[in-house]
Amino acid sequence: MPKMKTKRAAVKRFSLTKSGEVKRSKAFKSHILTKKSRKRKRNLRKATLVHKTQLKTVVKMISV
Prior knowledge:
It is built from 3 helices and 3 strands. By secondary structure, it is an alpha+beta fold. The chain has a 3-stranded antiparallel beta sheet with strand order 1-2-3.
C-alpha cells in the first residue's frame, strides 16, 4: 500500500496552533473591495479558527 500523502493545497491554507486548533485566513479579501467598508476590510485581515464541524476534516488533510 502506498504512503498517505498530505494535501498540499490544504497545508498552504491552514496551520495548526499549539493547542491543536486550526488557524485559517478569511475569504472575500481579494477583489471588489470598493464597496466593502474600511472596518470590514480591516477585520478580514485577521486570522480566525476553523469551526468545530470542519476541524476533523481539515486536520486529516494537513497532518498525514
